[in-house]
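Thread: quick sanity check before group meeting

JM: Hey all, I'm pulling together slides for Thursday and realized we never actually wrote out the predicted structure for the chain we discussed last week. Dropping the sequence here so it's in one place. If anyone has concerns about the input, flag it before I start.
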Amino acid sequence: MTWRPILITGGAGFVGSNLAERLAREGRPVLLLDNLSRAGTEHNFRYLCETYGDLVETHLGDTRDRRVVGDLVARSDCVFHFAAQVAVTTSLKDPVGDFESNLLGTLNVLEAVRRQEAPPPLVFTSTNKVYGDLRDIELTQGDDRYQPQDPQTKAHGIGESRPLEFHSPYGCSKGAADQYVLDYARMYGLRTTVFRMSCIYGRRQLGTEDQGWVAHLARKILRHEPLTIYGDGRQVRDLLYIDDLVDALLLALENTDLVAGQAFNIGGGPPNAISIIRAIRHLAELTGREPLTRYGPWRKGDQRYYVSDTRRFTGLTGWMPRIPVEQGMAQLCQWLLDRAPLGALQGRE
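JM (edit): ok, ran it. Output follows.
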């Protein structure tokens, strides 16, 4: 059987390269578009090409380039749109660049999809930041974590019925792109789906202080370098290992007719919720290295508690996270140690 390729924008990044590998391993050809602006992405391009040969076709470019996007979408069976500026801190420094990468780039992809005679389905990765700082959620403060007072929120997390409230240029650009993706399903009948993602972690994540915090903390501890905790460290997030996210992405593609035109909160859910303090303690136990910690001020718009309620997506597709936090963190640390000679512990921050 001859397959048309699957386009992944941001295909050399953390999520994109893991999805590309899964598809190529299954014999599916992939088109990868990436501008290689993030440190380490060039290694992912090289690894995928060397490992999977003709199944992987790489393109150095940017979603802000309409011609490149149009040419690649026209050749594609479906589109996973991950290319983005991914840090709140960067968006505060360069809001125009953030807007162009996240909103203009997404609009270019949507228009390219709409122009096709048979528009391919599209899955877009949004963020939990579209819900704002969530300051109205009443919390109790424990020794090492925040907990919601509302029993339903504590049991299930935050669902998609939560009102949107964009904070920071990053929140605005990703939130607006999120809404464009959904509206193109309403207005033009495109088969588009939005994942509002919580904290994804795992192999090939060269996290920094601004984004990818689990890998960032692990690298700091392994390098015996001091790490900064912004706020009090009791902030809670639900972690989702990369393999579980890839499962969800492929299920969204397999169930396009069920999920099209909808947004889903995607994360590890309450069973995989952990505070920053607890994450640091667990990484210290895994590595046998005592971290050097210091505290910094709260960051603008930081959520004290965010845990995904994933029941809607589970109900439609049967998806459930399989990899618990303890196992996922161990796998991440092992990957970092295995890749240390190639610079995984020395990435630019």
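AS: nice. The first strand starts at residue 6 and ends at 9. The mean pLDDT is 93.
JM: adding both to the slides.
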